[in-house]
Amino acid sequence: MLSQKTRYAIRAMQHLADHYGQGPVQLSEIAAAQKIPANFLTVILSELSRYGIVDSQRGKDGGYWLAIAPIDITYGDLIRVMRGSLALVPCASRFAHEKCRNCLEEGDCRTRALMLQVRDRTAELLDSIRLSDRIDPVPALEGEEES
């Protein structure tokens, strides 16, 4: 599952994409609209700024904005920046590969083979959807809890 930090980062970036080209967006506006604790949002936006995805300006008229056009940012990019990998297990990670403890040799492990396929298909999908793409909310099913 995605961490809460990653989910907040995605929502913040969607908010900034919705306001792309309109100037700085105040942190308090993003926090209120996306229901993200302001202190946590500050940390997230600082991290995204270090990666060159977000820019900021201090002061009364300051705020945050996308440093890169939304069409040039994929959801795969965002998740990799925040999470480090799209893989569900360390041995299937392309950039943060680690051997699993208490496991078979990688060449003999069918679970790893499956997780490599999952990683590749997940990457294919997330790398094909851009921050500029329209994504409509899907109504919750009856009996389904909202989070």
Commentary on this structure:
The chain is mainly α and about 150 residues long. The chain has two domains: about 5-65, Arc Repressor Mutant, subunit A; about 75-125. The protein has helices at about 5-20, 25-35, 40-50, 75-85, 110-125; strands spanning about 55, 65. A two-stranded antiparallel ribbon has the order 1-2. A hairpin with a 5-residue loop joins strand 1 and strand 2. The model has no long low-confidence stretch (mean pLDDT about 90).
Shape: elongated
Count every helix, treating DSSP H or I runs of 4 or more residues as helices: 5
Count up the domains.
2
The percentage helix is: 40-55%
User: Uncertain runs with pLDDT below 50, 5 residues or more?
Assistant: none
The amount of beta strand, in percent, is 5-15%
Biggest β-sheet: strands ordered side by side in the sheet = 1-2
CATH topology type of the largest domain: Arc Repressor Mutant, subunit A
What secondary-structure arrangement, pairings included, does this model have?
Elements: H1 4-18, H2 27-34, H3 38-50, E1 54-57, E2 63-66, H4 75-83, H5 110-126
Antiparallel strand pairs: 1-2
Helix pairs in contact: 1-2, 1-3, 1-4
